[in-house]
User: Fold Translation initiation factor IF-2, mitochondrial from Arxiozyma heterogenica.
Amino acid sequence: MIALGQGTMQKSNKLKELNFTIPNFISVTNLANLLNCRIQTLINDLAKLGFKDISNDYILTKEYTELILQEYNYHIPETVVQDCQNIYDELKQSSNPKALKRRPPIVTILGHVDHGKTTIIDYLRNSSVVKQEHGGITQHIGAFQVTTPVTKQKITFLDTPGHAAFLKMRERGANITDIIVLVISMEDSIKPQTVEAIKHIKNSGNELIVAITKIDKFPRLEDRKKKLTKIINDLMQHGIMVEDNGGDIQLVQISAKTGENMENLEESIVSLSEIMDIRSENLPSTMVQGWIVESKIKNKVGNIATVLIKKGALKKGDILLCGNTYCRVKNMTNNNNKPVTQALPAEAVEVLGWKDLPNVGDEIIQVKNEAVAKKYINKRIALLELENKVKSVEQYNENRAMELHNTVLTGQDKLEVNELNKENNINSGPKEVNFIIKTDVSGSAEAVKESIEHLGNDEVKCNIISTSVGVPTEGDLKMANLTSSTIICFNLDKLPNEVINNKFNIPIKRYNVIYKLIEDVIDILVKNMKQIFEKKIIATLELREVFEYRLKKKIIKIAGCKVSNGEVKRNAKVQITRNSDDNIIYEGQIQTLKHGKDEIATTNKGHECGITFTNNFENFQAGDKISVYELVEVARHL
Ligand SMILES: Nc1nc2c(ncn2[C@@H]2O[C@H](COP(=O)(O)OP(=O)(O)OP(=O)(O)O)[C@@H](O)[C@H]2O)c(=O)[nH]1
Assistant:
């Protein structure tokens, strides 16, 4: 705890009662008035708490006001902090363990580009149609179900490899999927995106099955064995131990081209899901929960979205709440384009009736009626507005601080500083990365401080906010929250749960070995360095023909293309080159992506498509080359 003590901040055991409600925002002057203290005293105390460049018109958010009031020994009434991510949580019913029933597993396929993810999905989807209804046509709705050939069990596959919804949910720490199938081509073994996928899998805690594909390319058994041994060793290097290597991860060898062993893949998924005993509730009284896996506006139909059900049974007339929109379910169809009357857990259906288009990856929750939906949407919008206000207050405070800073400079100095800031887009000096050190004894506190305080370079540097002995206190957590610090604990073995899983989500790092501690601090510093990106081409298209069509009075040009390789997504970043790869004539994004008249989200190798570009770019011609790229972060070092 920092030594505060300008009169008002003397700590005592008896808490004072507040005689005002804490506002969302308050200036330093007004807070000083409410507290009956001198403005300068409050400013000095705020500086001790780590606030920089404070003046009397600095605006404090509610969180910071609470912190200072706590330091002034006031009792702060407990309130549940709601934000637009968790606002709907209070509507969720807790599951009734007795009502949990087995449901099909939800599976995502990941792997390196061109290792055969799409071919596996196509094989599974086509075989599912052939079996269900001869000659039927599947529509892409983001997920589909197969029935396994031998055990006749159902499996749900998310049907775009590395599906956007899956990635978005993962970012938020939610799990849309139960099992990941990691595809590795027998020809290539592990490649960079395989390694990326392994990282995803480890972080998500999902169960894993490894599928070695393209085995038809190695008809001789001894060649297959050789390749397989290499893959198993490569996997081991990345901490994946398959069954053949003493681990418990299943490995299947398949060819999605010939269909060889594809039934083994499906049965492996079923047997893993049985071990996992995947269940969810779907009593008649269960309120539905699920996720949006696709959403689009269909011409003459309206807003439609694919909902993957997590619990409950969705029926016509149900009211679903999602983000800032809701839906009275008008109609539901499955991926065979058949109308259905209900959708059970792990089933995906296209749902019609949305007021506005929901976002892919967002969670849905059933509510009793439209009035409840509207009430919660209004609450959420108010929270979003508040969050935006907090952001603009932060910006206001920063601008004020910058103005204050600049007033001490004059004339030419001021001009130069402004120009420099503009050019380098940095404030002066390296970025300070804050740490709070907590140790068992004071000797080790000093030792830890000395070994890390000099770390850094001209971009980032280590800044020690405080060092002290003992487990992190509530005050340490608040200080860490205020200063965005990481708390480093050395030789502190037993930490209370409320510290480890603290409500501020402050990272608490524990060490007994100083080298490991230094390594991690370097890692944190590197993560705070500026991100540098380079282009990575992930797909190319040949521009074959330019089409024109009239929209009202305007003529619109469309680039008619064929995908030479990779996967192309709507909104992807692209560059267009002419005659040579160096001659870039356009850089921007895909605005619309169509197949025939239909808007599509993705297309891939061998397919034709029509494209328009952002910024109304139309100066393209047949023969141009379109390269789709991602910006890939370049690894940084101290
Ligand atoms: N011989 C053989 N070729 C395959 C097999 N699976 C996929 N391929 C071929 O490998 C190439 C890439 O397959 P895709 O399914 O598009 O690979 P992907 O992983 O989806 O690729 P991206 O979508 O670009 O990430 C295509 O030419 C496929 O025909 C297989 O089991 N055997």
About this structure: Residues 111, 113-119, 161, 213-214, 216-217, 255-257, 566-567, 604-605 surround guanosine-5'-triphosphate (CB under 6 Å).
